[in-house]
Design a protein that fits this description.
The complex is a heterodimer of chains A (257) and B (362). By secondary structure, chain A is an alpha/beta fold. Chain A contains 11 helices and 9 strands. Helices cover 38% and strands 18% of the residues of chain A. Classes of the chains: A alpha/beta (257), B alpha/beta (362).
Chain lengths: 257, 362
């Protein structure tokens, strides 16, 4: 039997390399469920930071929620904020380090429920930061409870018979809300469940960071994503459901540019 | 040259923050401490030193702005009054857990709830026993003069950075609002970004160069074994603070039969009580804790061997008296006298209380 040691270089021959993970994503297992969109969203943010060459000058803020451990995965200086407070934390950083790039990475419970005040007022002050807002219509980390963005009729562990808007309120379109504020330079809604959307989302994130470079004010990039575990679907089913239901209520595209 | 001015306690604290080389102040208006942010906005310290001042949308946002800026190794301050401090406790707990240095001033008013806008000392427990969730401690400084309102700002920053821990100035509406002559501290230069990187390279999030691992500011660790280790590390740090940072003042304790224990405004009143009592032939002394945590246990314990009793004088229903009792440990009677709801005791009321509670009954 002949044994030879095979190195990655033997498999990935020069010229054949079509994709490489950015070094700004750490070599570790992500804590997200298989099929979840967070991993792609993380990668896009870090690719943009890599491509803009701003890794040494970027400070990220992780939220409370599924992406609470984002600081474990992103190879830059990061802070973990209390639930909903990431835009206030980012404000503090940016005010004392205006030459740095500052972004928050938040879910819908964090940004659109408990952190609504911090979100609106950071945007209203036109804080020169980037907000990455991943909206999957549910509280994933705590086990699938109703979020401010849960669709009408959608089941969750705290709306087991479906969200009744008369008593539980309507799903909130916070990106549209903050787009009305003069401090917001750019508000857009994107997705990552298909390759064509992934490419657009990356462009949006790039634009958001370029806005910060050009001192334009707040940029918010909402990414409508799935939560196959919380929605109790297979990843494939969840992407289809997202396409048919989430995007009907949360339409993709620029809201303010 | 010494610069002497007549200033309000709140204004003295604000001016002292500029002079201490603070990098930022984040606040939200609340009586009786709104002069702090008003003074700073009027003074435009960004023109004097580059210090940033921002009025936040809430106390919650303000303390989280402090968190973000402090995590970059900057000297950052916030101030509020009792109900506002309750709102800040979440952030304070996070900062204690993440070991972030910062300065928080509480210009106390009477409570509970919205309470009153008049002075109180009923946030003693909140300040010295933690207040927010989790096992943590704040270093708590209690000024009793406008001079100390100013002096404790720089001291507070120094202690905060020495121990990587939040420090609280626990004042009250009387000291915040009163005007006194003070000698202003000299202007300190703000610490440059280069110097911050040099000093706090092991933790501050200043942007990750290739030469070091990333710095992460977090209070989270889902592994109980590691979280326990972190807690033990915090407790060891608190022990070091207890060993090294106790501050107090004793007034006429040497020959005293009775000792008053009082801080802040109550200490000012108690100083008069010492005088009134001695005029009547009562040998009264005063121990004034300057650090409420760490508490001056040892000196109280020492005097417990020789005096006939202690009276803890506070503007509350009896909070610090518990720490006095622990220090005395049964060696002498310990009583409490307090006014609540924004009422301030007169020296003669305190003296009568001392006579009633400690002299006629024993």
């Amino acid at each position: 039997m002949i044994t030879t040691e095979i190195t990655p270089e033997d498999i990935i021959k020069k010229g054949k390399l079509v994709f490489q993970k950015t070094s700004f994503m750490n070599d570790c297992t992500l804590s997200y469920c298989p099929g979840c969109g967070h991993g792609v969203a993380h990668r896009l943010v870090m690719e943009v930071i890599d491509e803009m060459g701003i890794g040494e000058d970027t400070i990220g803020v992780a939220p409370v929620g599924c992406s609470v451990l984002a600081y474990e995965f992103m190879n830059i200086d990061m802070q973990q904020a209390a639930h909903g407070r990431a835009p206030a934390v980012a404000t503090g950083i940016k005010r004392v380090m205006p030459e740095k790039y500052v972004f928050t990475y938040q879910g819908d419970g964090d940004l659109a429920a408990i952190g609504t005040a911090e979100t609106i007022h950071a945007c209203n002050r036109g804080e020169n930061i980037v907000i990455i807002f991943v909206n999957n219509g549910i509280y994933g980390m705590t086990g699938g409870q109703m979020a401010p963005t849960t669709l009408a009729g959608m089941k969750s562990s705290t709306s087991p018979y479906g969200r009744v808007v008369e008593t539980m309120g309507h799903p909130i379109k916070i990106t549209e809300m903050v787009a009305t504020l003069p401090g917001v330079a750019y508000a857009t809604r994107q997705a990552v469940h298909e390759a064509k959307y992934v490419r657009k989302t990356k462009k949006a994130i790039r634009k958001a960071f370029e806005n910060q470079r050009d001192n334009k004010g707040t940029s918010i990039v909402e990414i409508v994503s799935n939560c196959n575990s919380g929605w109790k679907m297979t990843p494939e089913e969840s992407n289809k459901w997202l396409d048919e239901n989430m995007l009907a209520y949360f339409p993709l595209g620029d809201i303010k540019k | 040259m010494e610069e002497v001015k007549l200033m309000k306690g709140n204004e003295a604290m604000a001016e002292a923050a500029i002079r201490a080389g603070a990098d930022a102040y984040f606040g939200y208006p609340i009586t009786p401490q709104s002069e702090v942010i008003e003074y700073l906005m009027l003074e435009e310290p960004h023109k004097r030193t580059g210090m940033q001042v921002l009025q936040a949308e809430s106390e919650v946002a303000a303390i989280n702005m402090v968190y973000g800026a402090a995590a970059c190794g900057k000297r950052v301050m916030t101030s509020s009054s009792s109900p506002g401090i309750s709102l800040k406790l979440e952030g304070i707990s996070y900062m204690a857990g993440s070991e972030l240095p910062c300065l928080i001033a509480n210009v106390m008013r009477g409570g509970p709830g919205l309470g009153t806008i008049q002075p109180g000392q009923s946030d003693y427990f909140q300040a010295v026993k933690g207040g927010g969730h989790g096992d943590y401690r704040l270093i708590v400084l209690a000024p009793s003069t406008v001079q100390e309102m100013a002096d404790f700002v720089d001291l507070g920053f120094e202690l905060a950075f020495e121990y990587r821990n939040p420090v609280m100035i626990l004042s009250d509406g009387a000291i915040g609002q009163m005007m006194e002559k003070i000698s202003l501290p000299d202007q300190k230069e703000r610490i440059s970004n280069e110097e911050i990187i040099k000093r706090y390279n092991s933790w501050a999030t200043t942007g990750k160069p290739e030469t070091r691992e990333r710095n992460i500011i977090t209070s989270l660790d889902l592994k109980p074994e590691r979280q326990e280790k972190h807690n033990i590390h915090l407790q060891n740090k608190y022990q070091r603070i207890e060993d090294n940072e106790v501050r107090y003042e004793t007034i006429q304790c040497e020959d005293a039969d009775y000792i008053l224990v009082a801080f802040g405004s109550s200490a000012r009143i108690s100083q008069k009580v010492v005088q009134l009592g001695r005029e009547k032939g009562l040998k009264i002394g005063l121990i004034r804790p300057i650090t409420l945590w760490p508490f001056p246990t040892e000196i109280i314990s020492k005097y417990a061997e020789k005096v006939k009793g202690f009276l803890s004088v506070e503007m509350n229903a009896g909070q610090m008296v518990e720490d006095v009792r622990l220090a005395v440990n049964g060696k002498a009677p310990v009583e409490h006298y307090g006014k609540m709801g924004g009422m301030i005791a007169t020296p003669s009321e305190v003296l009568s209380a001392l006579e009633d509670k400690l002299i006629s009954n024993h």
